[in-house]
TrEMBL record:
Domain annotation HD: ranges: 45-167
Superkingdom of origin organism: Archaea
Listed CDD domains: HDc
InterPro entries the record matches: HD/PDEase_dom, HD_domain, MJ1020-like
Name recorded for this polypeptide: Metal dependent phosphohydrolase
GO molecular function: hydrolase activity
SMART domains the UniProt entry points to: HDc
Organism from which the protein derives: Methanocaldococcus infernus (strain DSM 11812 / JCM 15783 / ME)
Pfam families documented for this protein: HD
Amino acid sequence: MEELKKLNGVAKEIFNELENNVKVNTLLKMSNIMAVKRLGYNDHGKTHARIVANNAIKILKILNKRNIVPSYVKECKGSFEDSLVITLVGAYLHDIGNSVHRKEHHLHSAYLAKDIVEEILKKYYSEEKAYQMLTEILHAIYSHSEGIPSITVEAGCIAVADGTDMTKGRSRIPICRKCYDIHSISAASVEKVTILEGKDRPIKIEVILSNEAGIFQIQEVLGEKINWSGLKDYISVYAKVEKESPVFKEITL
């Protein structure tokens, strides 16, 4: 969680508020009860929230370094720290709606997050700016699901980061506990996901697999997130089978 550890200033204070907020922690706990215990999905709780927040911030920083300006900076005259806060909060809260139901969980997450985010932001920003940033965060939360285009850079970072949390035991595809199918095999095949600054494209995502079945996981989970993120032109994905090839090969999404 190197990016979360690097946070400072207002971003760090807001992260600490999220970490210690009783309502947020309860919603994340209930999200796991609903998603994991009742529906057979993998973690959608606090660990997932931290991983997605960390990876989204990393993606945002690389894009900014490569002169892809965050939307709030470009269109609302905000600072990079403002965009970082939008990305942090949106990523951390994007899955709290699972506590209500997996179906339409992105919508549930948005309305559950509204009061939480508004209360936190008003401590650090003017009322007008707090409302501006609130709408950006709610957009990012709502548009993290496949089928809904991410309109801002910050939202796109969150959508892609959500897809990167797919190592074995953390698959976004539910595993059938009583069968041996492509979903189960693929979900258990992703050993490691690394986000790097690329050469031709700003973001390079490397995935190490234990077997080729993991390609299905990359295409169906990460690929779909990238395709709806608005950031597809800035991202390349490479994979290799750990014990079969020393070379990463680009994956067509």
